[in-house]
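FIELD: query
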Amino acid sequence: MSTPRSISKFNVLAHLGDGARSSIYAVQDAKTKQVWALKHVIRVNEKDDRFIEQTEREHAIGSKLDHPSIRKIGRLIRSRKFLKTTSVSLIMELVDGYTLDKRIPRNYSDMVSIFHQVAQGLMHMHGRGFVHADMKPTNVLVLDDQSIRIIDLGQACPIGTVKPRIQGTPGYIAPEQANRREITPQTDIYNLGAMMYWVLVREVMPTALPPSAGEAADSSNVLEDHEVAMPTPPHERNSRIHPLLSQQVMDCIQLDPAQRPESMDIVANRLEMIQQVLAAAPEAAAST
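FIELD: result
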């Protein structure tokens, strides 16, 4: 599909990428000349309604957040025809960066710095009453100065939500997500732990939703909690990973939410402490 010249009175500067039923563009406000990112979702049939709803939810939640580690969300523009929504455009902060899976730091100190920033952003979300519910490397943008932005709030929800269908990413999804139980801050703690595991080990860990499930995830794909194997601790996979960092990951990915850290505040504080430990021992901060 060709790149449009304009969308909702915004001039399209470049096509940045595509997501589930959406396209992302760099755009310029024709009036103010301000440059933004714009997520455009077109409704072709009823199957697209949930992607319209996800974008509306991303705006509803994102507009209530104001943390430097979370991409800023502007306004939502709806296009209608005969009183029916035909497309939505979400105006967002334009961020010049790469997703974490494509910009993995070269040393453990920088990795922990990114983990800490993510934890702080999620802590802010929890304080506002929301859970991200899809934390993974592709939902973290890393900028040149090593600051980050958490992106994609399409699966975010109020704390305590029980979702009507399975939502999450194989390799990162928490057991309570896969089994459609209550979503809480501990869900983000698990997702973050799984993300940290991947960054450190470069492999997705076993979760209740196997990678083979893909987008066709349903109850037939889901493993019961007792069927999910705990992964080998990161420091046992690579002896250069500090045991404290390895233990933090393993604490976050406990299958029982009650066995994970009590809050994201605790996770952030522990990561800050690990940063200090690595700073005091440069040889421990070096990657392979």
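FIELD: remark
The chain has a mean pLDDT of 92.
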